[in-house]
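Instructor's aside before we start: the two examples that follow are unrelated to each other. I chose them only because their records fit on one page, so don't look for a connection. First example below.
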Amino acid sequence: MEAVEGMMERMKLSMAEKKGIRVQAEGSGSQLAAPQAVGKVLAEKLVGADGLAQTLGRIWCPIKGVMCKDLGENHFLFTFLQGSGKKRALDDGPWMFGKDLVVLIDLDESKQLRR
């Protein structure tokens, strides 16, 4: 045990090693804390999540786009793949999808979706 302690005392770190490293959890780090919002399309007909993601994603996150999950009855969960996309979506609206209004709110995981 003393031999190990002696080696530890003689160990010197380079300047790069002293700065540290960034460790991410397994999986895609961008999706772990990806910004999200909930939206509703005010339309009489059902709207597809893929169409919303492609159309509005080009505006909100022009480089990486958005992911859109259908929650039923024209309610959708938007996951923004660029940090500034959520701010733009929430602040620069109202938004239209075709001739239908899209209403967005910030995701609050402590609340339930009421239809």
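Example two begins here.
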Amino acid sequence: MHTIELAAALLTIDMQQGIQRLPTPRNNPQAERHIAQLQQHWRARGWPLVHIRHISVDADSVFAPGQSGAAFQPELAPQASEAVFEKNVTDAFCHSALERWLHVRGIAKVVIVGVASENSVEATARTASNLGFATVVVTDACYTFGKTDFAGVLRSADDVHNMAMANLRDEYAQLHCTAELLSGD
């Protein structure tokens, strides 16, 4: 059983409408449901929620500003009282005020969910840890897509996700599933 302290912020990364348009097979088809459960859990306890939105500098991106892909998925959208930070690189801490926002509120722990496991989730988790935040990644509340590796071998979304989690495990983050966090109070 894992207990989340009052000072833990839930960081929801890049859960925007554009990510739903990507045709590549993905893993964790229940990730959005788990993210919604975690958001509800945090809101019921008055714990801090932070939403990260990717705003691309590439006009052809599904995350380009001013088009529907940049908008949050309605079921995972922030409430008016919740913090929103925008990024245009993979790392939610880079070129944003996220670190300062957390420090000002005395938040020493972050719980990360969202997309993509080996991209923005992994980059943000590594930086959070390197900045001294206790870091948790919820393995079944993030997902990714199949990808061709450096050697030209197509890797499944599960393979890519599992390697990202292996990269983070213990050195950068604790890994937990949604059920563990929801039962940990």
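The beta strands are 8-13, 49-54, 83-87, 109-115, 134-143, 147-148, 154-155, 174-176.
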